[in-house]
Amino acid sequence: MYEKYRKEIFMKNNFIYLSYFLDQMTPTYGNKEKIKLAKKSSIECGDVANHTIMTTSVHNGTHLDMPLHFFSSGQSIEDFCCSDFIFNQVLFIEIDSSDLIINDNLIQKMSEVENKIKFEAIIVKTGLCYKRDQEVYWKKNFGFHPNIADYIRQFFPNVGLFGFDSISVSSFSNRELGRVAHKSFLNPKKPILLLEDMKLNNLSEKTNIKKLIVAPLRIKNSDGLPCTVIAEVE
Question: Per its UniProt record, what Pfam families does this chain match (predicted)?
Fold first, then answer.
């Protein structure tokens, strides 16, 4: 009954989550710094209330990388307002890559897009989201070449967000290039925020994203921000 009600609500509103639950099974970059959940108190053990302590990196699960991640004077959440996290013009691209470092194949797809100036966010689906429960997700993840950030700034001047279904913009197989990619996207002079580890299973190129809402935890002076991400689709 409840499941039927949920489906009816979805059909009416067309809102979906593009972020994952956080739990102790959440994959992490390099399989390090895993999430830990510990019960400080439990009703089942006779305590008055349940109380859970969570220990995690701010770069676990669906999250934003902020410029402060790679620049000591880079921006964090305090430097952005609510409207910076609501996107009404979203370019969604699906890509099938044989290379772990995505570069020219994505640039070619972006070059074919008309009216580039209207877009505020770019979301890329690699298909890796279907393997999130496998070792390959963190060990052989797709990364994005620094050239992509340069291309976006030149031809998509209003884009402030680049999201994708890989665990990081940095492939674990080429971390050195990944550091350069982080710096290229997050350059404080004109940052393109990175939205990593997105849940894109239910999207295809036939999907029209009418609105994208990114709701980060408001952690001051933080280089990363776990997020809830919601899309209105049709």
Answer: Cyclase
**Do the domain assignments include residue 44?**
no
| Chain centre distance of CA 139 | 18
Structural domains of the chain, count: 1
Q: What is the mean pLDDT of residues 57-75?
A: 98
Distance CA(148)–CA(104), nearest Å, equals 8
Phi, psi (deg, nearest 5) at residue 186 = -90, 10
| Amino acid code (one letter) for 168 | S
- Calculate the CA dihedral of residues 162, 164, 167, 170 and round it to 10 degrees: -50
Percent above pLDDT 70 for the chain = 95
89 is in which domain, residue-wise? 11-21+58-233
Pairing state of beta strands 63-65 and 193-196? antiparallel
Asked, for residue 178, whether it belongs to a domain, the answer is yes
Q: Please, is 66 exposed, middle or buried when counting C-beta atoms within 10 Å of its C-beta (0-12, 13-18, 19+)?
A: buried
Q: What's the rounded mean pLDDT across residues 102-107? A: 98
Q: Which of 58, 56, 57 is nearest to 76 (CA)?
A: 58
